[in-house]
Design a protein that fits this description.
- Helix 4 runs antiparallel to helix 12, helix 4 packs across helix 13 and helix 7 packs antiparallel against helix 8.
- The protein has 13 helices and no strands.
- It starts with a helix and ends with a helix.
- It folds into two domains: 151 residues, no CATH class; 150 residues, Helix Hairpins (Orthogonal Bundle), CATH 1.10.287.620.
- The chain is mainly α and 402 residues long.
């Protein structure tokens, strides 16, 4: 097998393929090739070509180089063809009759408007987890009623808590009142004791005056008896009033405690209901549930918007795709995602310039890889010429890459 023929086969090119690609060997590229060949020649001279292992390794290096270059050329040729087709598409579109071009632009404009609508939509920041969203979605028909009931329960709990606080305050006031009445009862007892002690001391004094000085004390005893009776009566009345106040306070206190116990039961019951619902819906209070519900509705609206945009966009792109296909555009799938190129002349020109630059770079890339192929080919040919006795061995290695 000849080296040139083998190169054509391994690259997958026919005669026409080579004609399609013009290899521009600029002075810089030519110098690069000559430099590469010179380096290869120097490297070859450092090797012992009579050594089969070194010789085979050397040949394989260049075969690997050609294989990689061939693969890169194939890939770049495909992309080169795609870019060329896109440039041709723009030119083909410009050649369309005005009525046909108008139909294309109507459909392209439809896509642009949908894109603008989507861009102007302010998507709310997602502040609930996917699990919370799914739970709200599952309970969407029940949440308004659940939320209403939870708020009512919280309001009732607040009322009951306030009643408990009022009852606690009332109980404290009654307890203080009872304490005051008990203090008055002790005061009445002390007053009676003082009156008795004073009366005894006064009677003793009058008795001493009568016996020792023979002073008449009849009137003194009468006054003393009257004063003692008044003091004792006052003490008794005070004591009785205090006892009545204590009894009245005890009744009030017992009633307050009874009412408080009843209210406490209500408070415990409603608190248990709320705690259960909080745990059930994973919230701390109705405000958090209302917040999650609000964010769920925002996220739901956003997802519905996305779904609507997606459906309309798919329909609009399908319409444009079919129309472009009808007008024999090479790759309609590209232009349904670049509708501006079909509507705005300036954008079409910019894209065309970009494609031309891209194609030029691909062309340079293909030329570069072809340079590598040429370098490797010339080196193998030179090796066969210089070592004809190893030609069969070299070709055998090359054939492995065929």
């Amino acid at each position: 097998m000849k080296i040139v023929d083998w190169l054509k086969d391994i690259l997958g090119f026919g005669e026409d393929d080579f004609d399609d690609i013009e290899i521009n060997f600029t002075s810089e590229s030519a110098e690069s090739i000559m430099e590469s060949l010179a380096k290869a020649s120097k490297k070859r001279r450092t090797l012992n070509m009579n050594d089969k292992t070194q010789r085979e390794q050397y040949v394989r290096e260049y075969c690997d180089m050609m294989a990689v270059a061939s693969k890169d050329v194939d890939a770049q040729k495909i992309e080169y063809q795609q870019v060329t087709e896109r440039i041709a598409d723009l030119e083909e579109f410009e050649k369309l009759p005005a009525t046909d071009k108008s139909q294309v632009r109507i459909r392209a404009n439809k896509i642009i408007k949908i894109e603008q609508e989507n861009s102007s939509y302010t998507r709310p920041a997602k502040k609930i987890t996917e699990a919370q969203y799914r739970e709200m979605e599952r309970l969407s028909g029940e949440i308004p009623e659940i939320l209403k009931k939870m708020k009512e329960d919280e309001e009732y709990q607040a009322v009951v808590r306030r009643d408990l606080n009022l009852l606690e305050g009332e109980k404290g006031a009654v307890a203080y009142q009872r304490k005051e009445e008990r203090s008055r009862a002790r005061t009445a007892k002390n007053l009676a004791f003082v009156a008795l002690f004073g009366a005894v001391m006064a009677a003793a004094l009058l008795f001493v005056l009568n016996q020792a000085m023979h002073v008449k004390v009849d009137m003194g005893f009468i006054i003393l008896a009257g004063a003692f009776a008044v003091a004792l009566t006052a003490s008794f009345v005070m004591y009785q009033n205090a006892q009545s106040g204590i009894a009245r306070s005890n009744r009030k206190l017992n009633k307050a405690i009874s009412v408080q116990n009843t209210v406490k039961i209500k408070y415990v019951n409603i608190t248990n209901v709320l705690d259960y619902n909080y745990a059930k819906y994973g919230v701390m209070n109705s405000y958090e549930l209302a917040y999650i519900w609000e964010k769920y509705n925002e996220e739901k609206d956003a997802r519905e918007h996305d779904s609507d945009i997606s459906e309309r966009m798919e329909e609009a792109r399908s319409e444009l795709y079919q129309l472009l296909k009808h007008y024999h555009i090479n790759d309609p799938s590209v232009w349904v995602y670049q509708p501006g190129a079909l509507v705005y002349d300036d954008e079409a020109k910019d894209i065309r310039k970009q494609l031309i630059v891209q194609r030029q770079r691909l062309k340079k890339g293909i030329d570069f890889e072809m340079y590598n192929l040429e370098t490797a080919k010339k080196e193998i040919e030179a090796l066969i010429r210089e070592y004809p006795k190893y030609a069969k061995d070299i070709i055998a290695v090359v054939d492995e890459y065929d």
